[in-house]
Predict the structure.
Amino acid sequence: MENLRKLRMDRGLSQQALAEKFNLTQQSIYKYENGLAEPNIETLKSFAVFFGISVDYLIGGSDTSSWEDMLATLSPTEKEIKLLQNFRYLAPEIQDSIELIVDKLKSES
């Protein structure tokens, strides 16, 4: 959990200070940061809330540290919004046909 070290250092916290905030030992924080042990789910969630980040970022599954950054990557583009708006005005049978076409194209790529 390399990101834990970065987050802790960005806050100016020692391993001991972070450990005390979560009723852990300094050795536990050391082990988490160096991949020698893994925190339980509740501890992961507590770290995420404390640092204002996602658990995914904390464990290295994402490069984005904040919810805002993650949401920005999920936000539709202007082109996607326009397509959706136009799609909603189509008759249901045409929507079904478009869905089949998109599914086929997706499976071929």
